[in-house]
Amino acid sequence: MADKALVGEGLTKVFGGFAAVKDVNLSVRRGSIHALIGPNGAGKTTCFNLLTKTLTPTRGRILLDGEDISRMRTSEVARRGLVRSFQISAIFPHLTVLENVRVALQSSFGTGYHFWRSLRAVAPLNRRAEELLEQVGIQDNRDSPAAALSYGKKRALEIATTLALEPRVMLLDEPTAGMGHEDIEPITDLIKRVAVGRTVLLVEHNLSVVSTLCDRITVLQHGEVLAEGSYKDVSNDPRVVEAYMGGIDE
Ligand SMILES: Nc1ncnc2c1ncn2[C@@H]1O[C@H](COP(=O)(O)OP(=O)(O)OP(=O)(O)O)[C@@H](O)[C@H]1O
């Protein structure tokens, strides 16, 4: 159990009689970057939403560091170090980049969204916010309104606000979705950097990103696990090739 940061056991989610996820077993090794992939409608988002506690499983269990978190609220699991990017700290477009990270830090320090608290009380958080901006490479934009950032830099800001919650396990939902070619490489490098010393699970459509970033891949099809292994293993698996035929995105 010690090497498994996050485990899904027999995860099933039924929507009005339709099983979007069926008896999925999934283990995310500590320190790894693990991807959930599969053709459209395979159940990736549903599975991800179960693991991130956005949805409650119809059946099955989720274990974080061996502890059953199946019935816990997202805020409880976030306190235990399982954080979905953007789950708590959505970007506030009219706040500056620095203020956005500070708000995320306030929520992790339990001071919440009490904007009326004196500026003096939040000032010590500025240094940490600046460090986080540096870590994701957008320190030069600290005083810009978040709305003015390029798409790629917005994603970097979202990662900074996630890091503010000190995640041990980070869950990223399609981190490169909607990105132009020029933004994909920097965000891939950034995820690699912030993954050091952490565990990362992501849903990602871009298979070239998956191949460069991920240690382990789970392929879903029709709500079930079709294959699991390294990118090389799964991409050479004839069942995976067949599942993707006609439905591949990249
Ligand atoms: N809330 C819901 N109610 C009913 N059916 C749902 C619901 N959410 C998902 N589904 C169905 O479950 C199946 C799996 O959907 P899901 O979004 O998890 O797949 P996906 O692999 O993420 O797909 P995509 O790559 O297209 O985003 C689909 O057939 C979808 O229509």
TrEMBL record:
Pfam families: ABC_tran, BCA_ABC_TP_C. Residues 6-247 form the ABC transporter domain. GO terms for cellular component: plasma membrane. Gene3D superfamilies: P-loop containing nucleotide triphosphate hydrolases. One of its GO terms (molecular function) is ATP binding. It comes from the Bacteria. Keywords: ATP-binding, Nucleotide-binding, Transport. CDD domains: ABC_Mj1267_LivG_branched. PANTHER family: ABC TRANSPORTER ATP-BINDING PROTEIN, CONSERVED COMPONENT OF ABC TRANSPORTER FOR NATURAL AMINO ACIDS-RELATED. This is ABC transporter ATP-binding protein. It comes from Aquibium oceanicum.
